[in-house]
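Exam revision sheet. Question 4 asks you to relate a sequence to its structure. Input first:
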Amino acid sequence: MLRIKLRSACRYRELWKEELMCQIKRRSFLGLSATMLGGGLIAGKAGHGLGNGGQDAPDSVHHHVHAVSVMTETANRFLAALSPEQRAKATFQFNDDERMNWHFIPKERKGLTLREMSPYQKHLASALLAAGLSQTGYIKAVTIMSLEDVLKTMENDSGEHRDPEKYHFTVFGTPSATGTWGWRVEGHHLSQNYTVAKGQVVDGPSFFGSNPAEVRQGLRKGLRTLAGEDDLGFEVIRALDEPKQKIAIVDPKAYSDILTAASRKAALQGQPSGLVAAKMNAKQFDALRALVELYAYNLPDDLAERRMDQVNKAGRDVYFAWAGGIKPGDLHYYRVQTASFLIEFDDTQNNANHIHSVWRDFNGDFGGDPLKAHYETSHRTQRG
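Answer key, structure tokens:
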């Protein structure tokens, strides 16, 4: 596996140009796949994310497959391949409380694990995971899973506690391009949650973690699964001059974990703290923007576009806060907060070699406001 160790925001921007070309190629491939699937997938214009109410952007000229269509197709193919017993484990009613029972620690969970699947079922499960992520995001997810094998060796585990196939796949409701349903892939350091309503999809909570943050022994020595999230955070804090650093650093001691933990609704007490982007110069703001874009583009095109709509709407009303040291190897934490979303990151456990990172939507996690609006519209129609 190649390891790219990036040291500057400029270098990341060059990589994002390369990634953009990869995404264009990926869109072409998915478009071809849609044709081959005999119309099972729906190709359409960009800009159908929830950020614009599901309407076509008037200036959109390129086409790609909607994430909701890919998710629906792959979820149905996955479920169709399961035995009745497996299906019973993998499915819940949409309104079941289990849908919001998420976490990122190693624990017993509901759902069907990879290790309970046959080889061809695992392929279909992987396709479902890929449907909810960009190529970059998918690589992060499967690498996070693979780190369980590293921990198994480090901890001399039997394989019961540390297992790369102990990741649970769960579908809530009946997958439909126009109905209301959801799905989740979750295990140690990975929790990806999606809600579909009336042909639109929202993601969140979206959690990626990495233990170890850097593999320091064995055949995979040097691997840094979430290098970008870590390095670009340092780029932002180091881009600030001393007076601005003093505002951004809200605590000299790093927090022990992300503050929102595994709460069902993301919330932080009080007003946003840290340095507001309105007080940053162009170079500093560019560094912050690069960091946020990294998180946004973990998702497929139309979901990433919705995240970027939120970013653009916030403008410079964005707060960057840091806790802990600012040198490599120091325990550290950061967050990026706007009125609509929150990014949290910490590297504080195992001597700063254990990362937690999350994107939370204050009003969109588990469907949130878009789902509420869908129900209100449906109820008005029924009463009418």
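Marking note for examiners. Residues 9-36 form the longest helix (28 residues).
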